Amino acid sequence: MAKEEKTNVMRVLDGKKIAYESHAYEPDATMSGEEIAGILGEDPQKVFKTLVTQGKSGQYYVFVVPVKEELNLKKAASAASEKSVSMIKQKELLPLTGYVHGGCSPIGMKKQFKTFIHESAEAFDRIFVSAGKVGYQIELAPTDLISVTGCSLADII
C-alpha cells in the first residue's frame, strides 16, 4: 500500500493532535470549488475556499468562505475593523503565504494572519478546506479549524 503524501497542513494538524481526514483528487487547472465539492460528493456549502486580502492599513487578512459564495469586501473590512480590504494579486500569494493559487489553506501559512471564517461553518459537524496543495483537501470539525488558526466567525458573504 502506498504511503499517503503529507502536506504541511497535515503535519501541523498531526503535531497538534487534531483529527482530520484527507481527500485527494486529480486536479485540473480550470476546476472550480463547486466542481471539487462534486468530486468529493459533498454539499458545496461545506467546502470552503481560502482568500487572502490586504487592508487599507497594510495588514493582511485571511477569509474562509463556502466555495459557491463570494467574499463581500465591505463585510470583510468591517469584520477586520478596516476602512477597506482588497484581494491580493495572485503573484503575491506564494511569497506571502507559502501556498499557490488553488492550494491555499488557512492552516500553516508562513505567518499566521488574522483569519475569519464564514459563520455558516458552525452549522456543520465537518467542513473541508485545502490541505495546502492543489489536489488535496482536509475534512475537520469547524471548532478544530478555529482552534488551530485562532480564526473568528463572521458574516463575510
Describe this structure in words.
The protein has 157 residues and is an alpha/beta fold. The chain has a single domain, classed as YbaK protein (Alpha-Beta Complex). Helices cover 25% and strands 25% of the residues. It has five helices and eight strands; from the N terminus they run H-E-H-E-E-H-E-H-E-E-E-H-E. The chain has a five-stranded mixed beta sheet with strand order 4-2-3-5-8. It is globular, with a radius of gyration of 15 Å.
Question: Which keywords apply here?
Answer:
alpha/beta; 25% strand; three-stranded antiparallel β-sheet; five-stranded mixed β-sheet; YbaK protein; 157 residues; 25% helix
Number of strand segments: 8
The protein's oligomeric status is single chain
One letter per element, helices H and strands E, the order comes to HEHEEHEHEEEHE
CATH fold field value = YbaK protein
Structural class: alpha/beta
Helix content: 10-25%
Number of helices: 5
- Radius of gyration in whole Å, from Cα? 15 Å
Name the shape in a single word. Answer: globular
Q: Give the low-confidence spans.
A: none
TL;DR?
The protein is built from 5 helices and 8 strands. It has helices spanning 8-15, 33-40, 73-79, 90-97, 142-149; strands at residues 21-24, 48-55, 60-66, 85-87, 114-118, 127-130, 136-140, 152-154. The mean pLDDT is 95.
